[in-house]
Write a structure and sequence with these properties.
The chain has helices at 3-8, 177-181, 196-202, 244-247, 298-308; strands at 14-25, 31-36, 39-45, 58-68, 73-81, 91-101, 104-109, 119-121, 134-143, 146-156, 209-214, 220-223, 226-233, 236-242, 258-269, 273-285. By secondary structure, it is mainly beta. It has two domains: 3-159, Nucleic acid-binding proteins (OB fold (Dihydrolipoamide Acetyltransferase, E2P), Beta Barrel); 209-285, OB fold (Dihydrolipoamide Acetyltransferase, E2P). The strands form two sheets. It has a six-stranded mixed sheet. The protein has a five-stranded mixed barrel with strand order 1-2-3-5-4. A hairpin with a 2-residue loop joins β2 and β3 (39-45). The radius of gyration is 36 Å and the shape is elongated. The N and C termini lie far apart (130 Å).
Length: 332
């Protein structure tokens, strides 16, 4: 990771890296230990990652670093596997404000989520600049329990961000006289859009499902996989392929007013939009509003008419009142 690469990165707060370590489960599924470089570190696991970890085996993991001042110990949150192996184990990309906290130079990394408090990371930085609260983008190597700065790009004005909550116990950063006299305050505080590499690093794995509703039989064609048709919203066109049995639901129902819903997963991109993979179809009758009688198909009308024809009913013959049986009387 060169200095030119750092300079091309978006100016936003980040702390992310890759480690090659062995995960050992703890008392709870979401907590355990990472063993790397002969040391043990507390590890937290995102829920989606639990099924991808292989306890006791070395794996390349994407992690968030944290430092706990009370224990003077690092911990890591496991967020993904490094399947592409594009990063070097032990390499971290840190972006934050270099400032003084309790007379100690630390890198302040703010969390973008609402209500998230900033956290602070100690660095081994030879020829470090003055901790004047400027924004820096750093390439670091985690070695022997220390975060060592290898490359640095900066300084920059801090990205625009909501102010830190007043309830935070840490004091305000100590600014140097040089910063007070510099024209940084007059610069724009807008945040540059993240690069493609940064977006990929920040992305959380997810299962994307799409549901489309329509109320008329689409134009279609037969393909080897079944029946293919297209659904559009504006300029975005969705390509759907269903098995013939599924598609026939659109043709063989007896609903006068209906709506169909086709659902599936976001598939490959096409020249006009994207495909819908693993698609399934359901057809529902649309309920008419009160006071409006929906038009009934002919077949249903005939059945209803046949059921409504009056039938002659023969009145039951009146029965004579029931008499009590006579008992035999024995004369003496």
């Amino acid at each position: 990771m060169s200095k030119d690469y750092l300079q091309k990165q978006g100016q936003f707060y980040q702390a992310l890296g890759t480690v090659e370590a062995v995960f050992l489960p703890g008392d709870s599924p979401a907590r355990g230990e990472l063993v790397m470089q002969g040391q043990h570190f507390t590890a937290w696991v995102r829920g989606v990652m639990l099924k991808h970890l292989c306890p006791g085996e070395a794996q390349r993991l994407r992690v968030y670093p944290r430092f706990h001042k009370a224990e003077s110990q690092w911990s890591f949150t496991i967020i993904a596997l490094d399947n592409d192996q594009q990063s070097t184990p032990g390499e971290f990309l840190l972006k934050g404000n270099w400032l003084l906290v309790h007379q100690t130079p630390l890198l302040q990394v703010r969390q973008t989520r609402k209500g998230g408090k900033p956290f602070y990371l100690p660095l081994e930085w030879s020829e470090a600049p003055e901790p004047d609260a400027h924004f820096w983008m750093l390439q670091c190597h985690f070695m022997a329990g220390k975060m060592v700065v290898a490359q640095a790009a900066g300084p920059y004005p801090p990205p625009a961000q909501e102010q830190t909550p007043r309830s935070e116990a840490l004091p305000a950063p100590v600014l140097s006289p040089r910063l007070a006299k510099s024209p940084v305050d007059s610069l724009s505080q807008t945040t540059s859009p993240p690069s493609i590499a940064a977006i990929k690093a920040m992305a959380t794995p997810a299962k994307v499902e799409v549901t489309c509703k329509f109320s008329e039989v689409p134009q279609h064609r037969t393909v080897p996989e079944g029946v293919e048709f297209y659904l559009a919203q504006g300029e975005r066109i969705l390509t759907v392929t269903l098995k013939a049995k599924q598609f026939n639901k659109l043709l063989n129902h007896n609903y006068a007013d209906w709506v169909a819903a086709v659902s599936g997963q976001l598939g490959a991109a096409t020249t006009t939009g994207f495909e819908l993979s693993n698609a399934s179809l359901q057809v529902f009758e649309r309920q008419s509003k009160p006071g409006q009688a929906a038009e009934v198909p002919a077949t249903v009308k005939e059945a209803a008419t046949a059921q409504a024809k009056p039938t002659s009913i023969t009145p039951a013959t009146e029965r004579p009142p029931r008499q009590k049986p006579l008992r035999d009387v024995q004369l003496r």
